[in-house]
Amino acid sequence: MRSVLKEIPKVYWEDIKWFLKNKGELYQKHEMMWVAVVNKKIVAYGSDPDKIRKTAAKKTGREPEKIVVEFIEKAEAIYYG
């Protein structure tokens, strides 16, 4: 049986890493929004994650299920400890 992790493309992991690394900077522009990341760039954002994924797929040509879509909470929602 194949590992699910092996089926996830490398570019997807790179986009996740980019998002996590840059999340702090993204709060200023995209707080309380869903963002789609493709090739280490925000290519779509808004309040509806499904619409964001479709828009990003249309703009980039990447398959929708291979697009990173994450929610950016309010900065106050970050907990330390």
Fold topology:
Blueprint lengths: L3 H4 L2 H21 L2 E6 L2 E6 L2 H12 L7 E5 L9
Antiparallel strand pairs: 1-2, 1-3
Gist?
This protein is α+β, with helices and mostly antiparallel strands and 81 residues long.
What does this entry look like structurally?
- There is one protein chain.
- Strands 2-1-3 form a 3-stranded antiparallel β-sheet.
- The protein is built from 3 helices and 3 strands, in the order ααββαβ.
- 46% of the residues lie in helices and 21% in strands.
- The radius of gyration is 13 Å and the shape is globular.
- The model has no long low-confidence stretch (mean pLDDT 88).
- The chain has a domain of 43 residues.
- The protein has 81 residues and is an alpha+beta fold.
Kindly list the characteristics that best describe this protein.
81 residues, globular, 3 helices, alpha+beta, three-stranded antiparallel beta sheet
The residue fraction in helices comes out at 40-55%
Kindly report how far apart the N and C termini lie: 38 Å
Shape: globular
Q: What structural class is derived from the secondary structure elements? A: alpha+beta
Main sheet: strand order: 2-1-3
Quaternary structure of the protein? single chain
Q: Helices and strands, in N-to-C order? A: HHEEHE
Q: What is the tally of beta strands?
A: 3
Gyration radius (Cα, Å) is: 13 Å
Strand content: 15-25%
- Summarize the biggest pleated sheet: 3 strands, antiparallel
Number of helices: 3
Nearest-integer average pLDDT? 88
Q: Which parts are unreliable, with pLDDT below 50 for 5 consecutive residues or more?
A: none
